[in-house]
Amino acid sequence: MSSEIQNKKQILVIGGGIAGTEASVRLSGLGYQITLVEQSDKLGGKLNQWDRLFPEQKPAKELQQILVKGLNTNIKPLLNTTVCDIQKNNGKFKATLSDGQTIVSDAVLLSTGYDLFDARKKEEYGYGIYDNVITSADLEKIFREGRELKTAAGKTPKRIGIIHCVGSRDEKAGNTYCSQVCCITAVKQAIEIKEILPQTEVFCFYMDLRMFGRHFEDIYKKAQVNHNIQFIRGRLSEAFENSDGTVLLKAEDTLLNKPLKMNVDMVVLMVGMMPSKTAAHVSSMLKTNNGTDGFIAQPQGHYRLSCTNTPGVFSAGACTGPKTIEATLNDARSAALEVAEYLKSTNALLN
Amino acid sequence: MAIDFGYNIHRDRQIDYDSLSRDLLEKVQKAEPSIKACISCGTCAATCSAAQFTDFSLRKLILLTRRGYTKDMNNMVHKCMLCGKCQIICPMGVNTRNLVLTLQHFTDTI
């Protein structure tokens, strides 16, 4: 009897990135019917924008393939689709999708992810204005497409500056939090630059190096010892474009207690994570609260991280704040169990 | 005779990275590669006997070398008494005594 009801239970998963895809696969394994709504034309989310992943530099493509391998007949993925309207009524959620169809579900999982910080907002760094200032995402794209790393004028860069904390830990940018992944991404990308251009000097400008994850500290040491990447503690104050297209960087060398200037051929900005704009629309319709950081709130704290303030609405992945891929996958599995527990408890009420 | 107006002109104390040379750093990195592992934590300077009475700091010595302040480095490097406490305490395993001797070796001949 109960398994029959379980089989009929419908879950709407909004966002087909890492968290949404993984949670769908896990929930389908528990016998539920999933509708997985994804706004782009491919599952995997931001994974499709990266080349190789820290800490082991495994191809992002590989993980994307592993994720979608779990898809089965209990999951209905709807690509190029968004949620136009969603209302809760008598414990059921009625959603109208952009393709016109209506989906009724017993629970909703928000896995709407994050947006990358728009580096143009840090105008003093010159992104979108200077020719040789790119973001970490731009660099991944170059790697992914197998293009050569060149300056705008087509020269091989002899010196590259990597800027940490762009749009993170920055009250003026409106983001007080640490985006977690940028420090290790900076070190990963610095090593990848050195691997293809060993003669190029690479400098990382950082406030703190937050090497919290497993292997991260080892990668940092490898960057210094094996690749001679230089780390300068000081936040970039301004970047200026010289007439030859090179960029003058100004920071304080806070360990030497002196201001520092340096010309580089290319600048890579480590852009942080922002609350997703598309999530704001959906979560307001579902009346879920946000934290002061703009990410979806987790009112029940440590033990029930996947619960939002609206019963039946759950969260997974970076929609509740910056996360690594490993943390996102764990969060997605944890959310799947939370949703299943909730649906079982509503079953008990029915019985 | 110069008139004393009661003020001076200060030299720019900004680190002009491009005008400094890293030749010494390259030589030292080859002779004592463990210098690359330094993370500027300052444990060495905290335990240093010489640092209690002078401005000597191995952390700073390494930074001066990394930026290219060879003269400033050389002015400082002789304050080390080679007691080796820093080597015992360094979390990154920098061979500090040999590093100091290497820095002295390369700069004393300049």
CATH class of the largest domain in chain A: Alpha Beta
CATH topology of chain B: Fumarate Reductase Iron-sulfur Protein, Chain B, domain 2
The general outline of chain A is elongated
* Residues in β-strands, percent of chain B: under 5%
Low-confidence stretches of chain A: none
The helix/strand order of chain A is HEHEEEHEEEEEEEHEHEHEEEEEEHEH
**What Rg of chain B is obtained from the alpha carbons, in whole angstroms?**
16 Å
For the CA atoms, what is the radius of gyration of chain A?
A: 22 Å
In percent, how helical is the residue content of chain A? 25-40%
Secondary structure class of chain B reads: mainly alpha
DSSP summary, beta strand count of chain B: 1
Look at the structure and give the mean pLDDT of chain A.
95
Mind describing the biggest β-sheet of chain B?
none
Distance between the termini of chain B: 37 Å
Count of individual helical segments of chain B: 6
Tell me the quaternary state. Answer: heterodimer
Q: Per CATH, what is the topology of the largest domain in chain A?
A: FAD/NAD(P)-binding domain
Shape of chain B: globular
